[in-house]
Structures are given as C-alpha cells and as structure tokens.
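queue> pop job 88
queue> type: inverse folding (structure -> sequence)
queue> payload:
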C-alpha cells in the first residue's frame, strides 16, 4: 500500500448553512469482531476495495461481502480442499491457493472461481504475482500453521495459470515467496534442522542462499520487500530464543537487523514503507500487533492470533482467524467503532452526490478548523491530489479532471474520523 498523507485544510466557518444538515458523531478507530459467524475456519482475506472483501478457509470455503462486511455471501469453490491465501492483482482478477495443489482463479471480483491447479499431494502456502499473468506459487509438506517438511514445490506461470512450470525438486518446504519484478524474488525454505532465505535474479530458475539458520527450533515463515533494497522476513522460534522475530534489510538482502523480538510469529502483513502487522501463536500464548517503523509507534491488534490481514489503509482493514476450538471462522474489521461520544456531535453537509465535477463540503462552526484533514481516494485506493477551493465559507473539491466512477472521502477532526462518504462521479 502507498503511504496515506493527510491534506490539511484551514477554513473560515459561519453558523449558517446553505443546505439541510446531517448530524453525525465523533468515533474512534479500532479493531472489532464482526457478528457474522463464518461456517468454517478462515485462513486468508483480501480487500479488493472499501466495499468488496473476499475471505477463504477450510473445506473450500469462500465468502464475499460487497458492503464492507455488513453482509456475507457464500461463494461456490467446487473443492473441499482447505484454501490458505487469496490475492487480487487488480479489481477483477484474483487467485487462491490451498491444499493438494489447489489454485483457483476469478475474473469477476470473486463472484465465480475456476480451479487451475495441478495434481499433487503437496500444499500451497504462498503466492506472488507481479501482474495478472505472471506469478509464482510455493508450498510443500506441512500445514499453514507449521510450514516445514522435507519436500517443497515452486510453480510459475506467465499466462495467468493456463500453464505452469513446476519445480518439485526442493528438499525443503517453501513457506513464502515474494517477487519484486520479473527477475528478482525471494523464498523461505524450511526443513529440520535448517531454514534458508534464498534469492533469485533469473526469474526463479535458480536461487542462492542469503541467510540460513541451523537451529532446529527456528523456521522462516514470511518474506516481503518494499522495493529492491528494503525488505523484511520472519524467523519463527519457540519462546526465549534469540532467533525469533522480524528482520529488516536496507541493502538488497545482504545484511539483516532484527527490529522486532517475538516468538512464534506465523503471519506478517506489510502495509506500506513504514507500517506492518504481525501475529504470533504457540503454547506460550498468542496475539497480534502493528508497528510503524518510521515513528516507532505501535498499534494494538485484534487481540488474538490472526491467520491473515488485508489493508485498504491503516484505518480500513480486515483480519481473519478461527474460533477457540477451531470449529468456525472469525472476522475482525478495523474501522469506526460504535463508542459514540455524544458531547462531540459534528455537523457536515456534502453536496451534491452523485456529482459531475465538484463536491461542496460545509462544516459547522463547532469544529476546530485547525484539526480538519480531508483525503480522497479512487476505487483502487489511489490517493487523489487536488487543490481545494474556499468559497462562501465552503470547501469545494474539484474532480473535473478525474474519470467517472466511485470515490471515497475521509474527513478527520483531531485525528478522529468524523465522516466517511462514498462519492459517485457521473
């Protein structure tokens, strides 16, 4: 994800309004568990946009929401194999990987899926696509919670999964894969007693070792790069071991420094160049946490072990896990909490909507104008840069040069979101 910078708008406010006023309340941002109870454990989730989210799990279970988690529909997958990860390369095209060589593909935002996988008894744990056609999928023995074994597999496609180049010669399970471009990528391989972080510069034809760990208690569970120079990987170990935690490189993977000490990290989700979330679980306990490495701030996670996170931005995200006894799924959402502060009622008018070129925003005089921030994003989460116009004590946002479609307006007051609005340009 790209970093979300705030656009600060200082305006002069009057008591009068040109239009009828909608009253809303100041609310906090945080994680909360949805009331919806998924029928099966959930292992993977992906936010296509603010409204459309797809989650996958055990027994071929796929669910999908188009209203930001208010309602969920069960989607046929035509498989009973567990599904581990889901990833979309654009608004419409996505892939799912799972047990026994299962690879599913959708062309319609997750509404229908076809199986384009291979015949194998090995499980697929991770995928990395650089565009809608070119991608890599990895796996091996073990399961999503314990990605370790003495046989691994790597698949590559250059035509959207119509054909796969399969390399099943690995003597270690491949737990994670991440490619920066067509040539440069990384994998984590694990087998008793050796875990290895490997790099390729020839599109995966061969890999060489850039870090290894010979301790039987350690295995590598994730790798992610921001760009060719900056990346992260996770070494998962039992409690009280100095090899457990998250490591960072700023020199193309040549050297690594530990930036987080935490035992048994099973999932890492990098959000942008500064921020990531991670989750851990073992007999010693479980939990999840977010870190901003640029500011050294930390963020409280959903409060339990999380199999997967997906972020629109730091304020809008979903996470999935399983129930205490593993009988059904659990979904968490990060966004506006319902703890309304009645003493801080704010008044905002947004008009017109739908709109043709311009949006007019009028705010009440009880809002602290020095703390007002506006952000506008398009439907694929790209921040829209615009020059607001102040006229007749109103903020005018001119999007005449932007294409027709769906946009999202976020208004903050003193770092609290006081209004989010879908904007439709016709």
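queue> result:
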């Amino acid at each position: 994800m790209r970093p979300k910078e705030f656009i600060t708008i200082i305006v002069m406010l009057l008591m009068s309004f040109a239009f009828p006023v909608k009253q809303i309340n100041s609310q906090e941002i945080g994680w909360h568990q949805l009331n919806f109870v998924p029928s099966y454990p959930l292992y993977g989730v992906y936010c296509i946009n603010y409204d459309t989210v797809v989650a996958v799990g055990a027994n071929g279970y796929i669910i999908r929401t188009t209203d930001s988690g208010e309602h969920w529909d069960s989607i046929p997958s035509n498989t009973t194999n567990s599904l581990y990860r889901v990833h979309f390369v654009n608004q419409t095209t996505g892939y799912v990987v799972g047990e026994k060589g299962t690879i599913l593909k959708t062309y319609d935002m997750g509404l229908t899926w076809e199986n384009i996988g291979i015949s194998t008894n090995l499980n697929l744990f991770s995928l990395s696509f650089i565009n809608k056609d070119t991608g890599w999928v990895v796996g091996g023995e073990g399961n999503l919670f314990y990605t370790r074994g003495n046989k691994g597999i790597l698949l590559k496609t250059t035509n959207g999964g119509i054909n796969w180049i399969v390399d099943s010669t690995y003597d270690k399970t491949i737990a994670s894969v991440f490619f920066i471009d067509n040539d440069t990528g990384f994998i984590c391989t694990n087998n008793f007693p050796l875990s290895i972080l490997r790099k390729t510069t020839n599109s995966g034809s061969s890999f060489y070792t850039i870090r290894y760990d010979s301790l039987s208690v350690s295995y590598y569970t994730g790798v992610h790069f921001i760009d060719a120079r900056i990346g992260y990987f996770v070494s998962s170990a039992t409690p009280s071991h100095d090899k457990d935690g998250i490591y960072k490189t700023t020199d193309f993977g040549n050297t690594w420094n530990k930036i987080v000490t935490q035992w048994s990290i099973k999932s890492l989700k990098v959000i942008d160049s500064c921020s990531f979330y991670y989750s851990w679980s073992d007999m010693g306990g479980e939990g999840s946490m977010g870190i901003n490495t640029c500011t050294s701030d930390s963020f409280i996670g959903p409060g339990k072990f999380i199999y997967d996170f997906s972020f629109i931005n730091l304020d809008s995200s979903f996470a999935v896990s399983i129930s205490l006894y593993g009988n059904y799924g659990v979904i968490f959402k990060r966004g506006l909490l319902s703890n309304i502060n009645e003493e801080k009622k704010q008044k905002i008018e947004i008009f017109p909507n739908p709109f043709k070129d311009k949006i007019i925003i009028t705010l009440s005089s009880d809002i602290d104008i020095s703390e007002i921030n506006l952000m506008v994003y398009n439907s694929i989460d790209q921040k829209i840069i615009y020059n607001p116009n102040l006229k007749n004590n109103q903020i005018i946002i001119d999007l005449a040069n932007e294409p027709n479609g769906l946009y999202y307006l976020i208004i903050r007051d003193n770092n609290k979101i006081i209004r989010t609005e879908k904007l439709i340009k016709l």
